[in-house]
Amino acid sequence: KAVQDILARGRLPIIAGGTNLYIDSLISGLDFAERAEDNALRERLNAQYDELGGEAMIATLRGFDPERAAKLHPADKRRIVRAIEIYTLTGETITEHDEKTRKRPKKYDAVKIALSFADRGMLYDRINERVDKMVADGLFDEVKGLLDSGLSPDSTAMQAIGYKEPAAYFAGEITKDEAIELIKLSSRRYAKRQLTWLRGDETVKWYQWPSSPDFNEARRFSTEYLHSCGL
Question: pTM (2 decimals)?
Answer without folding.
Answer: 0.71
